[in-house]
Amino acid sequence: MFVLVNLKAYPCDPVAVAEAAATVADDTGTRVAVAPQAAHLSAVAATGVETWAQHVSGVDHGSHTGSTLASAVADAGAVGTLLNHSERRLRLAAIDAGLRAAEDAGLETVVCANNPPQVGAVTALGPDMVAVEPPELIGTGTPVSQADPDVVEEAVAAAGRVDDDVPVLCGAGISTGDDLAAARDLGSEGVLLASGVAKADDPEAALRDLVSGI
Amino acid sequence: MFVLVNLKAYPCDPVAVAEAAATVADDTGTRVAVAPQAAHLSAVAATGVETWAQHVSGVDHGSHTGSTLASAVADAGAVGTLLNHSERRLRLAAIDAGLRAAEDAGLETVVCANNPPQVGAVTALGPDMVAVEPPELIGTGTPVSQADPDVVEEAVAAAGRVDDDVPVLCGAGISTGDDLAAARDLGSEGVLLASGVAKADDPEAALRDLVSGI
Amino acid sequence: MFVLVNLKAYPCDPVAVAEAAATVADDTGTRVAVAPQAAHLSAVAATGVETWAQHVSGVDHGSHTGSTLASAVADAGAVGTLLNHSERRLRLAAIDAGLRAAEDAGLETVVCANNPPQVGAVTALGPDMVAVEPPELIGTGTPVSQADPDVVEEAVAAAGRVDDDVPVLCGAGISTGDDLAAARDLGSEGVLLASGVAKADDPEAALRDLVSGI
Amino acid sequence: MFVLVNLKAYPCDPVAVAEAAATVADDTGTRVAVAPQAAHLSAVAATGVETWAQHVSGVDHGSHTGSTLASAVADAGAVGTLLNHSERRLRLAAIDAGLRAAEDAGLETVVCANNPPQVGAVTALGPDMVAVEPPELIGTGTPVSQADPDVVEEAVAAAGRVDDDVPVLCGAGISTGDDLAAARDLGSEGVLLASGVAKADDPEAALRDLVSGI
């Protein structure tokens, strides 16, 4: 199971969460990555944790003021990137371009989608992984694996019909080891989580509980 | 073969083009539709031609000032809509929502895409038809079927891998009967065209030449 | 006082509201206009009511699939357009371009803004009128003139500091004659309203009550 | 004169340009700042140069995956930010929100605009500085101060009519000391430049030539 902690724009200390994640990853052998804002990438990567970007632009070098290029996040230490998170939905052509840019920069990719048909769609673009996150469950604390287990199974099926080599992650409301175990049992090969760790009083304890479900 | 004439925002007389299209459709038995701007839909539909929208929003009734709802274009006489044209690229979630809204309003759908992977992606969302239009060839007068025949065949293959019941149209640079015949021979079941008819001195003659390729 | 009824994407019958507005305008001598979706403009204009668009694109004729040009809404019978409604916020450059396009097409303009500083900003672009609509009050039924009278007075002052010839309208929660009278007393020269008329059981009665405040 | 070097998404070494800028600023006493991509901010700030962001989002802490918050760029060492660059045009409400967010994070602000009316508009929002950059001259190598001197004088006048305490910078095509001197003589209190330094074989020499115009 791959555990990807999205720090969003939360008022957490990104370095503290990164250090907690690095410790839990080392202690348990679980793959845990942390995705901070672009401006925090260098500081997070310096902790040694696997570092991901939350988004990259699909453009190449050039006159693109205010963009975050795949090559720049790689310079800052990122080894992967989310694309099309429900809080940063992209045009279809931009998902495609972002995947090409990430690939050129050597970044691994997880493309998010809201529902099984959209999971099928993004799988057709050739990402490394896809993730299903029903927007209505994000931030609720109710895990998708419990609130809507069918959506996880259908997402796995939808991806599989297009390309059965693309792992499916799930997210929304995941915070405990039970949630993670339930996600795995539904066919998910990893989880996206955010507030459950980033807003926890003790992020390391929250992560230890989570990975206990593996 | 389905011939869909996109009037874009050209300075043509939409009613004159619609009347020409209606005449050619009646005389030849070819399916020809015309897609004007939303504000011109009623006038175009009044000619009796098959009328399509260029875009619909994916939202439902509500507080959405400045939107064009599927139900509103249906009220105005449209029976179908384009979605995700390269000049109106949409977020993946908006293509999905637009398809649902169009379906609810009884509209037929053509979802456009720039390249074969994107054609595969949009096919997974369940449209009635898909169309491949390489952006770099739009408006060039060089038909996609001649400039880049592989892209048409690959688009047909990409759609077929996801769902082989979804017809593939092609567009970009199509204007003559030869272009249309070439598109058909590459597996396309219709064409999108725009300037070749909308900017022609004699739109009816341009359409007659085009459908002679069938 | 100018009364502009924005039908948004409500599930109302736009022609019935337009007929009610035309009747009240004729009977009372009040200036009342109706702004339907672009696809409904022709049908609304055919009632004889003063017809406005909810939005126009700032682009000129050309390859702009899915756009609504100022010239097209004028073709359909519109004599004015809203720009930058809080449900269709525009880039600053697009407000500027939309104003130029509207002017070229002979359309009158009302540019909306969320707060007094933004009212000052849009006044600098040379619109015919500006409107302040605090987004948090839209659709609440609580009139801005009562919930936040200072915002109306400050908006009038902010516009006046830039150009004191530009009338200021206000909107959000306006529905009764008392609301309209209060808006006028705060310096507003008109009102934007939507649900109070468009969702009323009897739009004509709602409008008669509203204009009684003048 | 304030010299702000925008690195855009150019394939330059941001640290090398930053070191050159720091050296020239120290040697000449000129205020020179460098604005890299968000992911490069920490590395640029570590050189000691005055560091600016190219863009910040107007949102506050929360569920905003893929955003760049003002507080995050400040964490990374930025002391100011551009907003509304013509390559990252913002909705009017987002410029306003970005200014509030920047102010809360202690960042200085330069809001860009395409023409004098837009300069007047953004001045009404209360930025620290404004900048006029005619988009058609960006990247041309033809300085705005020579190609279109009126636009600089009119921008200074437009800002002054709204608030005469807001300094006006200019940009587009600026690269030499003569360009800078001409900009100053037209009323500009600084310059934005990009390719003239970022793409120079010797950025330090390019900057020395530029500041020789002061």
Question: In words, what does this structure look like?
Answer:
The structure is a homotetramer of 214-residue chains. Chain A is 41% helix and 17% strand. Chain A has 214 residues and is α/β, with parallel strands linked by helices. The first copy, chain A, has a single domain (2-211), classed as TIM Barrel. An 8-stranded parallel β-barrel of chain A has the order 1-2-3-4-5-6-7-8, surrounded by 5 helices. In chain A, strand 5, helix 5 and strand 6 (129-132) form a beta-alpha-beta unit. In chain A, helix 1 runs parallel beside helix 10, helix 5 (116-123) packs parallel to helix 7 (149-162) and helix 8 packs parallel to helix 10 (203-211). The radius of gyration of chain A is 16 Å and the shape is globular. Chain A starts with a strand and ends with a helix. The mean pLDDT of chain A is 94. Chains in contact: A-B, A-D, B-C, C-D. At the A-D interface, helix 2 and helix 3 of A face helix 2 and helix 3 of D. Chains A, B, C, D: Keywords: Cytoplasm, Gluconeogenesis, Glycolysis, Isomerase. Chains A, B, C, D: Its main location: cytoplasm. Chains A, B, C, D: It is found in: Cytoplasm. Chains A, B, C, D: Homotetramer; dimer of dimers. Chains A, B, C, D: It comes from Halomarina ordinaria.
